[in-house]
UniProtKB/TrEMBL annotation:
Organism of this sequence: Yoonia rhodophyticola
PANTHER family: FORMYLGLYCINE-GENERATING ENZYME, SULFATASE MODIFYING FACTOR 1, 2
Stated name of the protein: Formylglycine-generating enzyme family protein
InterPro entries registered for this protein in UniProt: CTDL_fold, Sulfatase_Mod_Factor_Kinase, SUMF_dom, SUMF_sf
Pfam families assigned to the protein according to its UniProt record, in alphabetical order: FGE-sulfatase (PF03781)
Stored Gene3D superfamilies: paralog of FGE (formylglycine-generating enzyme)
Assigned keywords, A-Z: Signal
Signal peptide: 1-17
A GO term for molecular function: formylglycine-generating oxidase activity
Stretches assigned to the Sulfatase-modifying factor enzyme-like domain: 133-305
Length: 523
C-alpha cells in the first residue's frame, strides 16, 4: 500500500522535488567536520534530500571489460572463513571525459529515520528534527530493497534529471551496495596509496573514537564523527550496514558455492574496537525463526548506492567487440591457441571430444585473463617503484651536490690559509684537513648509492620497454589518475620525467649507466 499511495501523492504535487529541509537534516557532518560539499544531492519526498559521494574507480575506460582488481579481506586467519584475503573486481557505471575514471555514487550517510519517514509517509505528517537524524534500524533486508525501489520510482516520476546518466545511456537507480563497493569505499578508494588501502582501517589522524560510534552508547546522529578519506561518514560503527548480495564463505582462493544469509559490514555501536575493521563481515539469517518474520535487527541499517545496468542502452555492441577481442586474442597472431581450438571444435563430430575441447578453451581463456590481470598489476607496481626510485636518485643527487659544495669550500679555505703562520690559521687549516676524509667518504657512499639506485631504475625501465606498448600506455594513464587523486604533485612531475626517460631508452635501444645517471639527475 505504501508504494501506491506515495506514488500518487508525489505525482500530484508540482513542487514535490524541491528541497526545503535545512542542510543539517541531510548533510549534518559537513557543518560539524568542516567537510567538503557532497558530490551529489538528490531530492526526496516531503522536501527532503540525500547526499552522495562520488567514488572513483580507475580502469582502462576504453576497454568496456576492463575492471579494477582488488585485494580485500585481511591476512588474519582467526575468522578466515569469513574475512580472509580474497580477490574482487570493480568498475563504476558512470564515466566522465577522462578515459580512466569510472565511478559510482555512495550515500554519504546511513539512511536516517527522517529520510525513511519521507519515503514511507505519503502525507509528510512529521516535522524534521535533529532527533530524527539517527540511522534507521529495525528494517529487514527485504524492506531495504523496497525502500530503494520506492525512492527510485519517486525520482523517475518527479526528478528524473537529478539522477546521473550512465556512460551507455539508460537509467540509473538506487540499491544496496555490493560488498566490493562498500569495502573499496570504506578503505578510502583511490584517495589512499596501496599500503594504507590494505590496512585494517582507513588512515586516521586521530584515535578510532574520533571516526566511529562504538562502546555500547547507542546510535548517534549520522555525521557526528569524522569522515573517511572519501568524505563518507560512519562507515565503521554506529549501525551495521546491509549489503546487496547474500553471504558466502571464503573457501581459500574462491568464494564458496553455498549461498547464505544477509551480510552486514562495518560493525555497530555495540562492537568492540577490534571488530571495527574494513574487512569484518557478519552473516544474519534473513528470517527471525523465533518470531517467524523477516529479520530486522535494531543494530542494523543501510546506505544506498546509485547503480545502473551493465549493458546500458547503447553499450552491448562495444562490449561484444571487446569480449570477442579478448576471447580471440591478438589479431596479429593468426594461429593463436584459442583460434586453433575453435577450428577443431567446429570440425569435431564427436560430442565427447567437443566438450573436452570447449573445457580447454575455457581454461585457456581463464588463464589468459589471469595473465592479463597479472601483467597490469606488474606494470602498475613497476611504475610506482620506478617513480619512487627516481625520487630517491634525485634526492641523493642533491645530497651529492651539497657534499661536493662543502668539499670545494674546504679546499678553497685550505688554499686561503696556506702560508699563514699565525696559530689560529694553522689550527683552522689542520682542522679542515682532518675533516676532509669524512666528507670524501660520505660523497663516495652517496655516489655509490646513486649508482645502485640507477641500476634498479634501469631494471624498471627495461621491464616497461619490453612490455606491450598499449598496456604500458594504459598503466601510465591509470597511475597518473591515481596520483592526481592523492594530490601527488611531486610524483606527477617525476612520472613525466620517467616517461621521457623510457622514450629515450627505447629510441637508443638502451643506455649506459653514466648516461642514465645524467638523465635521471637532469633538472
Amino acid at each position: 500500500m505504501i508504494r501506491f499511495a506515495l506514488a500518487l501523492a508525489c505525482l500530484a504535487s508540482p513542487v514535490a522535488a524541491d528541497i526545503t529541509w535545512q542542510p543539517n537534516f541531510y548533510d549534518r557532518g559537513r557543518s560539524l567536520s568542516q567537510a567538503d560539499e557532497p558530490d551529489l544531492i538528490l531530492p526526496m519526498p516531503c522536501g527532503g534530500a540525500m547526499a552522495f559521494q562520488r567514488v572513483d574507480v580507475f580502469v582502462d575506460g576504453n576497454d568496456r571489460l576492463s575492471d579494477k582488481a582488488l585485494r580485500h579481506g585481511e591476512s588474519s586467519t582467526q575468522y578466515g572463513y569469513r574475512n580472509y584475503l580474497r580477490r574482487e573486481h570493480l568498475r563504476g557505471p558512470f564515466q566522465g571525459n577522462e578515459p580512466t575514471k569510472t565511478y559510482f555514487f555512495l550515500a554519504r550517510y546511513e539512511l536516517t529515520e527522517l529520510q525513511y519517514s519521507a519515503l514511507t509517509d505519503p502525507d509528510c505528517g512529521f516535522r524534521p528534527s535533529a532527533i530524527m537524524t539517527v540511522p534507521k534500524t529495525g528494517v529487514s533486508w527485504f524492506e531495504a530493497q523496497d525502500i530503494s525501489r520506492i525512492y527510485t520510482e519517486w525520482l523517475l516520476a518527479n526528478a528524473p534529471d537529478s539522477l546521473p546518466e550512465p556512460r551507455d545511456g539508460g537509467l540509473s537507480y538506487l540499491r544496496l551496495p555490493t560488498e566490493a563497493e562498500w569495502e573499496f569505499a570504506t578503505r578510502g578508494g583511490e584517495t589512499v596509496d596501496d599500503l594504507d588501502y590494505t590496512g585494517l582501517r582507513h588512515p586516521m589522524d586521530e584515535n578510532l573514537s574520533f571516526y566511529a560510534q562504538f562502546g555500547g552508547d547507542g546510535t548517534a546522529p549520522v555525521g557526528t564523527r569524522a569522515p573517511n578519506p572519501l568524505g563518507l561518514f560512519d562507515m565503521l560503527g554506529n549501525v551495521e550496514e546491509m549489503m546487496l548480495e547474500p553471504f558466502r564463505l571464503n573457501a581459500l582462493g574462491h568464494t564458496h558455492g553455498q549461498i547464505g544469509g544477509m551480510v552486514t559490514r562495518g560493525g555497530s555501536y555495540l562492537s568492540e574496537p577490534g571488530d571495527l575493521t574494513s574487512a569484518a563481515r557478519t552473516e544474519w539469517s534473513f528470517y527471525n525463526t523465533r518470531r517467524g518474520t523477516a529479520q530486522a535487527p535494531e543494530t542494523v541499517g543501510f546506505r544506498l548506492v546509485i547503480g545502473a545496468t551493465a549493458l546500458g542502452r547503447t553499450g552491448a555492441e562495444q562490449i561484444g567487440e571487446d569480449w570477442r577481442a579478448r576471447f580471440e586474442g591478438d589479431p596479429d597472431e593468426v594461429d593463436s591457441p584459442i583460434t586453433i581450438l575453435i577450428d577443431m571444435i567446429d570440425e569435431s563430430i564427436d560430442p565427447t571430444q567437443t566438450e573436452a575441447l570447449e573445457t580447454v578453451v575455457l581454461d585457456l581463456a581463464t588463464a589468459e585473463d589471469a595473465a592479463r590481470t597479472a601483467r597490469a598489476s606488474q606494470l602498475n607496481a613497476t611504475l610506482e617503484l620506478a617513480t619512487t626510485t627516481l625520487s630517491m636518485i634525485r634526492f641523493q643527487g642533491r645530497r651529492a651536490v651539497s657534499i661536493q659544495d662543502r668539499i670545494d669550500k674546504d679546499l678553497a679555505d685550505i688554499a686561503f690559509l696556506e702560508g699563514k703562520t699565525d696559530q689560529v690559521s694553522i689550527d683552522a687549516r689542520d682542522q679542515i684537513i682532518a675533516s676532509m676524509p669524512q666528507f670524501e667518504a660520505l660523497l663516495a657512499d652517496v655516489t655509490q648509492s646513486i649508482r645502485n639506485q640507477v641500476g634498479a631504475y634501469a631494471r624498471g625501465l627495461n621491464l616497461l620497454a619490453d612490455a606491450q606498448p598499449a598496456e604500458v600506455e594504459t598503466a601510465f594513464t591509470i597511475y597518473r589518475s591515481e596520483l592526481e587523486s592523492r594530490n601527488g604533485d611531486e610524483f606527477l612531475d617525476l612520472l613525466v620525467k620517467l616517461r621521457d626517460h623510457l622514450d629515450v631508452l627505447i629510441e637508443n635501444q638502451g643506455l649506459s649507466a653514466d648516461a642514465l645517471i645524467e638523465l635521471a639527475l637532469r633538472p
